[in-house]
Amino acid sequence: EAGVTQFPSHSVIEKGQTVTLRCDPISGHDNLYWYRRVMGKEIKFLLHFVKESKQDESGMPNNRFLAERTGGTYSTLKVQPAELEDSGVYFCASSPRTGESYGYTFGSGTRLTVV
Amino acid sequence: GEDVEQSLFLSVREGDSSVINCTYTDSSSTYLYWYKQEPGAGLQLLTYIFSNMDMKQDQRLTVLLNKKDKHLSLRIADTQTGDSAIYFCAESSSPGNTPLVFGKGTRLSVIA
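^ inputs. structure came back:
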């Protein structure tokens, strides 16, 4: 089975520009999560989708971040306009419905650098 | 809110045992996880333990849980250079259904 795929793997953009990150979860996984790790700090939760609905977006830093999951398949995370403090590694994870698994499968992450 | 703490660095010699420690604050944590991140790679699930267990062993890995002290440890026996990575402790109160809460990660360096 294909894993969780994220792209791009790296992105370098200037402050004020827009960047869109994409995550393709494992097929059939209803739950999709976005996390971010700023250099040297913990991996922080951003947002949780159940199918196409936002279950919990309490971790989103501010309204410059917009996540979507149209049709309950892949998800995008757009940062507009990007700021220097948005730099970090953005991870996506997916998991099946409750009770089917205790694991969350993570993608390789997108390393975002805002200069 | 929930908090997960880990020491940031650990250095061991090849062949020795490594012990990575983690403490958490959320008493409703029911599942605790160890993830490994190698350079340039994603997060790989190493193992997990239910809160009603004290110990779990999987080949070279041993997880110990002290629920009273909210302390979790990961022991890697016969540590190899390929074990060099960042190890993240994480907890969840409802696996798959709620977000994981991670520590900052422990960077393990294995010296040949």
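The mean pLDDT of chain B is 91. The longest strand of chain B covers residues 43-50.
thumbs up if we can close this ticket
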